[in-house]
Amino acid sequence: MAGKTKKFRVATQGATTDGREIQREWIQQMADNYDPAKYGARVWIEHIRGIGPDSAFGAMGDVISLEAKEVEDGKLALFAEIDPTDELKAMNKKRQKVYSSIEINHKFGDTDQAYLEGLAVTDSPASLGTEMMKFSREAGDKSPLASRKQHAENLFTEAVEVELDFEEEETPKPGIGDFVKNLFSRQDTKTNKGFEAFGADIKGAFSEFAQRFDALSTEVENRPTAEQFSQLKTDHDALKKSFDELFTKLDNTPDTSRRAPATGASGEEETDC
């Protein structure tokens, strides 16, 4: 099942909007400052913020996180990760709403730093293209885009084509305990008592096996990691080396426990006849 998207580029340093260029520090500030708990940027169609829950211009998702990375020519680019609605997923599957534009507040709140306040998707790049941006800037309050901004001095970036790549959410695999329970939950309760007793015994045996297996799995998971094992091996090798050096030293030490040679006699045996 498709979930959130992988990060995709939404803005690049130096790109023109309404005559103003996206500054490198804006990109970095948006990535550093973004906090959905403080102010969560939502995904809209054409930057139009619908009011009613059933509006055709309702929110299409939420921006989860932002990241700044250097791209070609050393320019800094902004990458976004979004949590799309089912409607946006369906649109994207049909190759609709494949262009993206962001709304930048370059003096957010009392921070005097840039912040991402919204992300838009559109089918027509011209509707949020360079010419429209310039026209809107010159028209001021009479601009067709003026009412879509959160603040008058905010700027919309030129729409660029994006490819939303949805991550697959893994469905948790049932443990062996769940497997055993599901297996025996399918038993027919109308069977005779003898079979019920037999089934109860088998169920108990499998349940015990499941518990032992889960315990073993936990034990295996708690075993030393490769790094820990490597450290243990290093310590063992060092200890072995110390013992080897000690044994070598002992082997080379003169043996002083031998009996001293006898003195004073010729060594010939005398016989008393």
From TrEMBL:
It comes from the Bacteria. It holds the Pfam family Phage_GPO. Residues 250-273 are annotated as: Disordered. InterPro entries: Capsid_scaffold_GpO. This is GPO family capsid scaffolding protein.
